Amino acid sequence: MKSTASLFRALLAVSMLAGCSSYRPTPAAFHKMLDQPYRLGAGDRVRVTVFEQDGLTNTYNVDQSGYVSLPLVGAVPARGHTAQQLEGAIADKLRQGYLRDPDVSVEIDRYRPIFVMGEVGAAGQYSYVPGLTVQKAVAIAGGFTPRANQESVDITRDINGKVITGRVVTSDPLLPGDTVYVRERLF
Fold it and tell me: What span is annotated as the signal peptide, if there is one (predicted)?
């Protein structure tokens, strides 16, 4: 009877640990996003150049609603669009009674920030730069704490309007708007 109770406790402990450590693998869409053209979102800043129109050429922020507000034409939807798609949308609006044949160029001036939290020296919001990896983001955030799991981290990413969390290795690249969570190691 005593050995059955011990066996039961051992099985219970193993099943509880398995439940805590189990994690769904990173969805395929998570890494496919890295090969897609960059899509604008709230917090990005774009440089819009309308050739021979100095009054329209400026730097504009994508607001929380996902729009860029320009003089004359007003709000132009930007969230989920590439820079080239935004160029076309602005040119279309300008053709509607303002300019005959507008030549518009859009480039990304500043990407939306990333967020690093968990077992790092200084959790917080940091500027995104192209080529940023998890390891570089952790270094920017003050490095790993002594209790940090340095093998893998959890990244939360917006993929086509769905917020998905996946576990990745520290050499994985980041995208603007990602949230990096460095877990505590067990031993």
Answer: 1-18
